[in-house]
Write a structure and sequence with these properties.
Layout: H1 3-42, H2 44-49, H3 64-84, H4 94-112, H5 126-130, H6 133-136, H7 142-153, H8 155-172, H9 186-192, H10 215-248, H11 264-276, H12 282-306, H13 313-322, H14 331-348, E1 361-365, E2 377-380, E3 390-394, H15 407-414, H16 419-427, H17 434-437, H18 442-459, H19 465-490, H20 495-505, H21 510-522, H22 529-548, H23 554-562, H24 569-590
Helix pairs in contact: 1-3, 3-4, 7-10, 8-10, 9-10, 12-19, 14-15, 15-18, 15-19, 18-19, 18-22, 19-20, 20-21, 22-24
Length: 591
């Protein structure tokens, strides 16, 4: 065969594979870009949060028809993804593909299993999220205020569609367990009871407008907002309140287990996959929890011996729950203590991290409307493109259930080096694809935040044995979650058994324990992510130290973990192991 002809044949033989690879990357990029643009249009509040303001005048459709249309769309996306496949992609696109496919599959499966019929739990809800609109909507000029008022006028349809979901859930036997809803209608009642629209929380942005807006326009905007609140928002909340009290609550299920719902076993297994990012059985998670409880309990017992406390473990917990020295006497005292811990943590960061975010954060109380039933603290990220800082919320209600000795661990978790550091860095990584940059994978985010609590020992944040015990009781709390969450949702545990287990094993107050147990009941699987994520990060650090020996750099390790943004644990593991290999290569070359 002539040499030139052979060359041509070889070129033709290999060309399809080369072009297929390039075509696969192009098809994947066009697919996720199309779906992301569609997703932002479907979820206007998400669009606002990520800095896209094309839909700031609407709240979005959430009714049954919209849910089924979304599932149909996402199933079509999955088919396109599977037609592309990860193997044909360039190596640096495969993680993106894996993360994106898992994200889309979760969206579709959640609707198939009825998750859309549970738009609230004891921790959060669609109506409480709506009440955050005055904080999350941008207010830069008069056009922003007009779009905000348009959103207020859209509230009745938005709430009515949520009522439609809740009604469908009742018919299908899919509802929030009744025990977790008692008293949770307080925020709805607060919004429905407004007689003067200018006293409504929704009117708050209209109280002080930018000076660049002319006075006549300010007056018109305030009048329009007041009319929207009195004519649209208040009646809509009143209707929702009537539905919740007369129709929904009396007919919700009296069982607590996810397994008790139709397809409940599949639903709970899906929740584990979503929150743990790995397909673990409830029994396997339960066993991990029991082992962690035993490990942490041994460390707690050592501190009790160190303090020479005259009594056993149960007596020490009773002492911590009841002694006034461990509790703030005012909201200001609690906030001041939290701020002091936060600033000490800020000062320690450069020793442990090479990359730090530009965005600062503040310390604020949990809003009064939700505080009585809210958790001890929460990080609230700033909307992308806004002029707001991140905020570390501290719950100043029920001060006798907010122990000061756990405040350092809470602060490290919610502020720095926990959620604020991780989320702010992720948001500043502009080169990351938006479906990764603006997603939150609980096993990664909560696992990192729990790791941050443990890191506080090396950072010098825990200054007393009680604060060290506080960190351990927070770790014990998260280990208990593995036991009680799986126990209640898969292994037949009652609510009281779960409460008794946490009472016996943690130093949390009775109020906090009951609040947490109700959170796990109404939000299956989410609580598993903390300890499972932290265990993986801890294992990866140990692996890096073992492999790198004297060349191990803790700051570089932390930067490696955080540079991925929010990713599933298998992806994080692969990334860190690639970093370890790279460090070995660099050390060998330098040597």
């Amino acid at each position: 065969m002539p040499r030139k002809l052979l060359i041509v044949i070889l070129m033709l033989a290999f060309a399809p594979a080369v072009f297929a690879d390039a075509d696969a990357d192009t098809r994947f990029r066009e697919l996720w870009q199309r779906e992301w643009a569609w997703r932002l249009a479907q979820f206007p509040q998400l669009a606002t949060a990520v800095g896209v303001h094309d839909y700031d005048d609407r709240l979005g459709e959430v009714g049954l028809a919209a849910q089924q249309q979304r599932r149909k769309y996402w199933l079509a996306v999955l088919r396109e993804l599977d037609a592309i496949g990860p193997d044909a992609l360039a190596a640096d696109s495969r993680d993106d593909f894996s993360i994106y496919r898992a994200q889309i599959e979760s969206f579709a499966e959640n609707i198939r299993l009825g998750g859309h019929l549970l738009p609230m739990n004891s921790d959060s809800s669609f109506h409480a999220d709506l009440a955050m609109l005055p904080r999350s909507h941008p207010f830069r000029d008069s056009a922003d205020y007009r779009r905000y008022i348009a959103r207020l006028r859209a509230v009745p349809v938005y709430l009515e569609q949520h009522i439609e979901l809740l009604r469908e859930g009742l018919e299908r036997g899919i509802s929030v367990p009744r025990i977790t809803l008692e008293g949770r209608d307080a925020s709805i009642a607060r919004a429905a009871a407004v007689s003067d629209p200018m006293t409504s929380d929704f009117y708050q942005p209209l109280r002080e407008l930018p000076p660049a807006i002319p006075a006549a326009e300010v007056q018109a905007l305030r009048a329009d907002a007041a009319a929207a609140i009195s004519e649209r928002v208040v009646p809509a909340y009143a209707k929702l309140l009537e539905f919740m009290r007369e129709d929904y609550l009396p007919h919700t299920r009296t069982t607590i287990a996810a397994h008790a719902m139709p397809d409940g076993a599949a639903y709970y297994r899906r929740q584990i996959i979503d929150f743990a990012t790995e397909d673990l059985t409830p029994e396997a998670v339960h066993a991990i929890g029991l082992a962690e409880v035993a490990r942490i309990r041994a460390a707690m017992d050592q501190i009790i011996v160190e303090l020479k406390f005259d009594g056993d473990y149960a007596a020490f917990l009773a002492f911590l729950r009841g002694d006034p020295q461990f509790y703030a006497r005012s909201a200001t005292e609690l906030l001041s203590a939290a701020a002091w811990v936060a600033k000490r943590a800020d000062g320690a960061l450069p020793k442990f991290f090479g990359n730090l975010p530009r965005l600062p954060y503040g310390v604020q109380p949990v809003p009064e409307a939700i505080a009585p039933y809210y958790t001890a603290g929460r990080y609230v990220a700033a909307a992308a493109g806004s002029r707001e800082a991140g905020n570390y919320w501290v719950n100043t209600s029920k001060l006798d259930s907010r122990p000061l000795y756990t405040l350092p661990a809470l602060t490290l978790h919610e502020a720095v080096p926990g959620h604020h550091l991780q989320i702010a860095l992720a948001n500043e990584q502009g080169e990351q694809l938006p479906f990764r940059r603006f997603s939150y994978i609980s096993a990664y985010g909560e696992g990192w935040a729990l790791y941050a609590e443990e890191l506080g020992h090396e950072m010098g944040i825990y200054t007393t044995p009680y604060e060290r015990f506080g960190q351990l009781t927070y770790a014990m709390w998260r280990a208990n979650r593995l036991v009680v969450d799986t126990g209640m949702h898969a292994l037949g545990w009652s609510r009281e058994r779960a409460i008794d287990y946490m009472t016996a094993n943690t130093a949390l107050s009775e109020h906090e324990i009951r609040t947490e147990i109700d959170r796990y009941i109404s939000w299956p699987g989410q609580a598993l992510s903390y300890m499972l994520g932290m265990i993986r990060i801890r294992e990866l650090r140990a692996e890096a130290q073992r492999e790198l020996g004297a060349e191990f750099d803790l700051r570089a390790f932390h930067d490696s973990v955080l540079e991925t943004g929010s990713v599933p644990l298998p992806v994080l593991s692969a990334h860190v192991r690639a970093w370890i290999a790279q460090q070995k290569t660099s050390a060998a070359a330098a040597g």
